[in-house]
């Protein structure tokens, strides 16, 4: 329809009135009478159902205009609606259809904020009418007087939030009669009465009124002042208790906006409500860009273990699988790495994850599972695994040191550092054999072990590729011009900054180098930072817009490394997820 765009543009507000005082906002208070029920389907399969539209335009307590008309709904009116409203089919027969009324109504509400009592009902019918006639419903602001009354008035003052009850309470000049214009005029008086009440709640702008009408808790309203004065920059925010303990640490590219969201109806987490009740102030830590903010958040959570943060609180609680340096090496579960010549796989977030990966190794290669320190001279009795053919029995010296190394230790070392193909192929062959024998549950268990092992191998090799770099300098275009800069040393963020727009970033890089953290190398794939920090840095570096400026060494991954099995891991995890869903259902 050619006229659609004009009317839609008419509803769009030229300026955001959220910060405008209520006395300066133009409101269109609307009320509809309908044939009852719900709005029609937007596909036009049913009639819209609107029988009357009444609207009053006001600003600062002054009436600016009135819109009122009956509407022919194109369908019969139920008798109970006629009894309720007094509107008969004879009255509607000469009335214009919604196709003729809607354009004029949209023009009437141009540049205003819609107000209605039980607004979702009235707005729902208006949206259905727009959808049927080809109009896009614009993002107009809507204020619901019923919702406002539920927040501003107590049960001792009014027994319910019906329009008639509120009109009597506020001594409205017009009594609601279930006719659109009368009810709209009564709603105007109710609106003004509610505005008088909002002053005691420190609500004076349109944005505050809309937020006040939402289902925010008393604690959120009482502590809303904590969000005042915070910077609109990337960084970390810390909610602190009266004794200055960190209660919760978060990060955002806009600290002020993010913290304000904790005091809105969008925040429904019970733990956050409990946290807000204990918080007395919010500390903001400004950062150069988003990556620095993410890293600082992780470090603060690890340092303070805030009670209301669920994740990243105890990065030291990781587990590693270590291939020992014995003559007949075995897998050992340890809490920390050491530069002792052992081969380590990890880190794992829990013992269960490590045990699952270890089981995958045992299923792929004949590495011994006992915990004894074996002698190359004195034999020991074999366990049941040797009798079952699951162990080459180095304890009884059935296998030489070199042969054991070739069949058990070397495949594990090779899988960790370069090619896990022999292990994965062996596991896949066993899975296929079990499936062909219709032993599907056993195949699923083995698939889970393979996924845990492969996940750890892929992760470790990705981490090792970055942490082997003594220094790496990277840049990403800054939103306001210039470049976001990061200096990474052994997988740890050593410095971050932003170069000015239209200025070569080299001087800023050199300045950052002078103040960057000194990071020493160490053993393992995470010698200088937590695995989570290095993975955040990896994600930032791997974005298409990131540019690698300098590196001390070649950044590479093994040609036949674990990453080539990424698709296999995705399929295995998908199968495990589907199996778990089936079990739960």
Please characterize this protein's 3D structure.
It is a single chain. With 585 residues, this protein is of the alpha+beta class. It is 41% helix and 16% strand. It contains 21 helices and 15 strands. The protein has helices at 4-11, 79-85, 89-92, 98-108, 119-133, 145-152, 163-169, 180-198, 206-213, 218-222, 255-261, 270-278, 290-304, 351-364, 384-387, 401-417, 421-436, 440-467, 506-515, 531-541, 566-584; strands at 26-34, 50-59, 62-70, 113-116, 142-144, 235-240, 246-252, 281-286, 319-323, 331-334, 343-348, 472-477, 483-489, 492-499, 547-551. The strands form four sheets. It has a five-stranded mixed β-sheet with strand order 3-2-1-4-5, sandwiched between helices. The protein has a four-stranded antiparallel β-sheet with strand order 14-13-12-15, with helices on both faces. A hairpin with a 2-residue loop joins strand 13 (483-489) and strand 14 (492-499). Helix 6 packs parallel to helix 8, helix 14 packs across helix 18 and helix 17 (421-436) packs antiparallel against helix 18. It is elongated and about 110 Å long. The two termini are 49 Å apart. Residues 1-16 and 42-46 have low confidence and may be disordered. GO terms for molecular function: DNA binding; DNA-directed DNA polymerase activity; exonuclease activity. InterPro entries: DnaQ, GIY-YIG_endonuc, GIY-YIG_endonuc_sf, GIY-YIG_UvrC_Cho, Ribonucl_H, RNaseH-like_sf, RNaseH_sf, UvrABC_protein_C.
């Amino acid at each position: 329809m050619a006229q659609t765009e004009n009317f839609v543009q008419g509803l769009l507000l030229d300026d955001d009135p959220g910060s405008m005082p209520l006395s300066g906002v133009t409101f269109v208070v609307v009320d509809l009478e309908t044939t009852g029920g719900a709005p029609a389907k937007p596909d036009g399969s049913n009639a819209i159902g609107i029988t009357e539209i009444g609207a009053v335009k006001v600003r600062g307590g002054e009436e600016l205009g009135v819109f009122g008309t009956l509407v022919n709904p194109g369908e019969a009116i139920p008798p109970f609606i006629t009894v309720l409203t007094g509107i008969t089919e004879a009255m509607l027969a000469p009335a214009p259809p919604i196709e003729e009324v809607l354009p004029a109504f949209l023009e009437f509400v141009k540049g205003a904020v819609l107000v209605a009592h039980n607004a979702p009902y009235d707005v729902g019918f208006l949206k259905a009418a727009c959808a049927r006639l080809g109009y896009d419903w614009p993002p107009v602001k809507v204020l619901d007087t019923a919702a406002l009354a539920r927040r501003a008035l107590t049960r001792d003052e009014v027994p319910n939030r019906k329009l008639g009850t509120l009109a009597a309470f506020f001594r409205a000049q017009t009594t609601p009669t279930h006719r659109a214009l009368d009810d709209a005029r009564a709603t105007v008086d109710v609106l003004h009465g509610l505005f008088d009440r909002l002053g005691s709640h420190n609500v004076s702008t349109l944005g505050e009124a809309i937020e006040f009408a939402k289902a925010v808790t008393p604690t959120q309203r009482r502590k809303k002042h904590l969000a005042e004065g915070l910077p609109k920059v990337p960084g970390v925010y810390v909610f602190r208790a009266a004794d200055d303990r960190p209660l919760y640490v978060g990060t955002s590219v806009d600290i002020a906006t993010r913290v304000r969201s904790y005091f809105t109806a969008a925040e429904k987490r019970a733990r956050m409500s409990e946290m807000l009740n204990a918080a007395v102030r919010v500390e903001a830590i400004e950062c150069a860009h988003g990556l620095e903010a993410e890293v600082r958040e992780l470090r603060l959570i690890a340092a303070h273990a805030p009670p209301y943060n669920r994740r990243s609180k105890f990065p030291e609680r990781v587990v590693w699988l270590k291939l020992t340096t014995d003559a007949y090496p075995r897998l050992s579960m340890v809490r920390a790495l050491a530069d002792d010549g052992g081969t380590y796989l990890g880190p794992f977030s829990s013992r269960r994850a490590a045990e699952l990966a270890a089981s995958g190794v045992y299923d792929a290669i004949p590495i011994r599972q006992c915990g004894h320190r074996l002698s190359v001279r004195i034999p020991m009795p074999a366990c049941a695994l040797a009798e079952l053919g699951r162990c080459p029995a180095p304890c009884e010296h059935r296998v030489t040191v070199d042969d054991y190394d070739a069949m058990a230790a070397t495949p594990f070392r090779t899988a960790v550092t370069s090619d896990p193909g022999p292990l994965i192929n062996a596991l896949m062959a066993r899975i296929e054999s079990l499936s062909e024998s219709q032993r599907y549950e056993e195949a699923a268990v083995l698939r889970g072990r393979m996924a845990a092992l492969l996940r750890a191998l892929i992760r470790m090799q990705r981490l090792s590729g970055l942490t082997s770099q003594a220094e790496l300098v990277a840049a990403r275009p800054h939103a306001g011009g210039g470049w976001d800069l990061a200096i990474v040393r052994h997988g740890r963020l050593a410095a971050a900054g932003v170069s000015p727009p239209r200025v070569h970033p080299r001087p800023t890089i050199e300045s950052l180098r002078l103040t960057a953290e000194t990071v020493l190398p160490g053993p393992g794939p995470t010698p200088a930072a937590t695995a989570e920090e290095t993975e955040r840095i990896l994600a930032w570096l791997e974005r298409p817009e990131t540019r690698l400026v300098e590196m001390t060494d070649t950044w590479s991954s093994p040609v036949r490394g674990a990453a080539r099995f990424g698709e296999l891991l995705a399929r295995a995890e998908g199968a495990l997820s589907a199996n778990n869903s089936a079990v739960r259902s």
